[in-house]
What does this fold into?
Amino acid sequence: MTGEPAFAAAPAGGLPRRSAQAPASAGGCKTTTSCGTSAPVQDPEIAEKIANHPCYSAEAHQYYARMHVAVAPGCNIQCNFCNRKFDCANESRPGVTSTLLTPEDALAKVKLVASEIKQMSVLGIAGPGDPLANPKPTFRTMELVARDCPDIKLCLSTNGLRLPEFVDRIADLNVDHVTITINMIDPEVGERIYPWVAWRGKRYTGREASKILSEQQLAGLAALTERKILCKVNSVMIPGINDEHLVEVSRTVKGLGAFLHNVMPLVSAPEHGTVFGLTGQRGPTPQELKALQDRCEQDDGAEMNMMRHCRQCRADAVGLLGEDRGDEFLPETFQGREIVYDLAGRQQAHEEIERWRTEVAATRQTLNIATGARTPDVPAAEPVRPAEVVLVAVATKGSGVVNQHFGHAGEFWIYEAGPGWARLVQTRDVDRYCNGPSDCDEDASKLDRTIEMLSDCAAVLCSKIGLGPREALEEAGIEPVEIYDLIDKAVAEIGARLVTDRAPAEVGTP
Ligand code: CLF
Ligand code: SF4
It folds into this structure.
């Protein structure tokens, strides 16, 4: 492979900021959607709902951004992985604190962000506590945004305790997407995760608390799916506590109509001050996490659609998943300002993104590359996973292109790679070890940690790599590949070569 791009590069104002180069071209603007899973998306209504939702579609997350507004401070349960000084850890990375906004300030912020980051397609309310434990500011914010920003999808994430009582309100507001965090369906497991639940004016503990919580969560999920609201279930994987149990959770929520399951790793450190952090409860390794996600997905597991690209974002996150542009939108930039909502500019930017997505999809089709997902416009094509695949890591700034320097990557996207196969299965954070030419080849310990994190990968694909890291990767048996091309194309082609080159005994299911 050469490093030459196989496409014309052209700047596009409305395309994601992480996109260094993304071609603009003429052509139709049909939605080409894939969910983050191997499941077919044949229902046009569902396909439309996930088309530009970065969490519900792994493909869309390369192009579209989300933002959260932190309007919901309180919570009505206690999780052992949560410290109330920080954001709700059911959907956020533990240890971060978001600034609280009023609904009016939240609206001003949404209008500003939507006009500046035009590919922002979804507003989520995910904390910093539980949105439904704070129904007034949560629903007021949604009403205001629905009134002034008609093209933005509304998304909600909740622990589910009060979900049944708000299902009608959620439906009336046209909230299309709801996430419920369900870490157990068995109170015996639950009592090790939840010390208490505050329910109808009383505080419950022990198994009783988890029983109430679980019943409410499952009843809320069933009521939402009955109304055709798309539901995702988040679960925090806690090794030794609920890891084995989560396959059963997956099976149960699928049975109740959940569309997607997002198993996230417990992030636990003593400095977070959580029960699990202080008692030394460890989180899973990336390999353990992937193995569990695979089990939930397989036909001897739950055959569930699994989300693989969650970044556990904060309650005031702004930007593409994996980037945080919150610092550009501090309160002084929107508070008390009259902000004009640039609907026409947004529509134009989205059309441009869709043209590029159509081109990328056409390239995939021409080269006969499957991503493990089905596009609604080609429902007949079954994704076929080759018998032999390897894992490869990709450094990207988005837009479907391998376009990032190895040392600048704060995360790598992990793909299953093989002949005609390029499937995103995980993203992994690493310490960005190069902050510029002066230290690019120097921080050996960060580089060691990165290599450790990628130890199960056969190759790393990036736009550039320095000599030091190149040699270190080679020594670790990971092939560094400098390339600038479409991710799917590069992954499938390099995967095919690696599968062919490797001895049969080395190849298999990673
Ligand atoms: Fe936000 Fe959640 Fe909606 Fe997405 S996040 S409320 S569904 S718009 Fe997405 Fe962030 Fe993971 Fe959540 S990457 S933490 S899954
Ligand atoms: Fe913390 Fe969220 Fe659990 Fe509430 S639901 S205790 S905010 S992690």
In short: The chain has a mean pLDDT of 86. Residues 55, 66, 68, 91, 122, 124, 126, 155, 157, 177, 179, 232, 262, 310-313, 321 surround FE(8)-S(7) cluster (ligand 1) (CB under 6 Å).
